[in-house]
Design a protein that fits this description.
18% of the residues lie in helices and 37% in strands. By secondary structure, it is of the alpha+beta class. It folds into two domains: 4-99, Elongation Factor Tu (Ef-tu), domain 3 (Beta Barrel); 103-241, Threonyl-trna Synthetase, Chain A, domain 2 (Threonyl-tRNA Synthetase, Chain A, domain 2). β9 and β10 form a beta hairpin.
Length: 242
């Protein structure tokens, strides 16, 4: 059974009721989840699973399920290896899955900021990382980037309050529009029938499975912490919250 990825529909959803569908070596799979699994440069969510009697098990990470027939939405909820959770989390067990919302919301703000950064720099991305502490994009560019110019561009887009929305296209439409892909290091998940696009109104449109805020104003104060040369053809931009 494929996992219903509720975070793709509503990234603001903080918890959900779910049923355990499978036990793995280091965690479990659920029939539905609010946990975003590590992917596309964005860190996986953390949080907890709570049983009907109040017993709680910490989810220390969320990753894409690695098994034959798995879809991009199938999620492994990694549990604390020091805790004996197998007897209580057998298939069929009902739980409430709850994410660490403060951490997720930082991911959402940073991830949306990286889309704005793509619009400011306008070069292909050759590496990315989105965490609760910082976000970085490596751009395939040889010319230096001016830190003040990049900061001013980001500030203007954040302050303008551009709405952020999602839409879906077929695999065939994705293949026919390769210009939508801004990343050289992360390919959109194709072969499953459809691909999700993230649209920052009047600013950016690209395939992305991550979590984002509804409006660029929610990003808040972000500063360009540093711009550095990572290779002869790559410049790294690191963002932090001010």
């Amino acid at each position: 059974m494929a996992t219903e990825a509720l975070y793709r529909i509503d990234p603001y959803l903080q918890s959900c009721e779910a049923v355990v569908t499978a036990l793995r070596d280091d965690g479990i799979e659920l029939d539905r989840t609010v946990f975003y699994p590590l992917g596309g440069g964005q860190a996986g969510d953390r949080g907890a699973l709570t049983l009907a009697d109040g017993t709680t098990y910490a989810v220390v990470d969320a990753r894409k399920a690695r098994r034959e027939g798995a879809t991009p939405d199938d999620t492994l909820h990694v549990l604390d290896p020091a805790v004996d959770w197998r007897a209580r989390l057998a298939p069929g067990t009902r739980v409430v899955a709850t994410i660490d919302w403060a951490r997720r919301y930082r991911h959402m703000r940073f991830h949306t900021a990286t889309h704005l950064l793509c619009a400011v720099v306008k070069e292909l991305v050759d590496g990315c990382s989105i965490t609760a502490e910082y976000a970085r994009l490596d751009f395939a560019i040889t010319a230096p980037l001016d830190k003040e110019t990049v900061q001013a561009g980001l500030d203007a887009l954040i302050a303008a309050g551009h709405p952020v929305s999602y839409e879906w296209i077929t695999d065939e439409e994705m293949a026919a529009n390769p210009q939508l892909v801004k990343s050289m290091s992360v390919s959109p998940p194709m072969g499953f029938g459809r691909v999700r696009l993230v649209r920052v109104q009047d600013v950016d449109l690209q395939p992305c499975g991550g979590t984002h805020v509804k409006n660029t104003r929610e990003i808040g104060n972000v500063r360009v912490a540093k711009i550095e040369k990572k290779s002869a053809r790559t410049r790294r931009v690191v963002l932090e919250f001010a």
